[in-house]
Every structure is written in structure tokens, then in C-alpha cells.
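ok so dumb question maybe but i'm new to this and my supervisor (M.) told me to 'just get the structure for Large ribosomal subunit protein uL30m' and walked off. so i did the thing. is this what she meant?? sequence i used:
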Amino acid sequence: MNAFKAFKTCVPITWSPNLYITLVRGIPGTRKLHRRTLEALRLRKCNRTVMRWNTPTVRGMLQQVKRLVVVETEEMFKARKAKEANHRALRPPLVVNHLPAPPASCSP
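this is what came out, is it supposed to look like this??
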């Protein structure tokens, strides 16, 4: 199960005041009604996210295009963005010394 499906299954959407909607499937090849619904939601390109209020109208639109989008609550969206930012964070550089090792001196 991918992360988006895991997010979708574990959160009751009706309790969240704001919904973050991400288009995860392409628009070409979809029904005209679905394209118009995505246009009304202001989703035009894949992997773009919009924030909408949680109203019955928006939930009905999402029910219609549920196979094309992923719905997240505000907490889930912030957690995902923090995880992505942490993944992209700068790490300390590796220092590799290419100089030959100093000869070991043995005194008898």
C-alpha cells in the first residue's frame, strides 16, 4: 500500500475544517465531467495541491473524482511536508582524504 492510500484510509475527513487535495493521476483520458470537476477544484496539473474548506459541496466533488485525487487533513499535509523537508535537508559533507598514509616509523 502506498503512502497516499495509507493517508486516505486512516483519517476521518468529516472532522477536519480544511482539506488538502492533491491530483495524483493524469487528466488525459478521463471523462469530461471529471475534467470539469477538477477544473472547478482548481487542479490542473499532476502532483499539485490545493486547500479547500470542508463543505458538503466539496466532498461531493471529491467523491466524484476520488480515483484521481488524494485528500489530506491539515495535520497530515503538514506532517508530509515536514517529512519531505527533512529528507531534503542538507547533510554534513563527507571528508575523504586522498593523501597517502604517513609511513610508520619503527625504532628497534
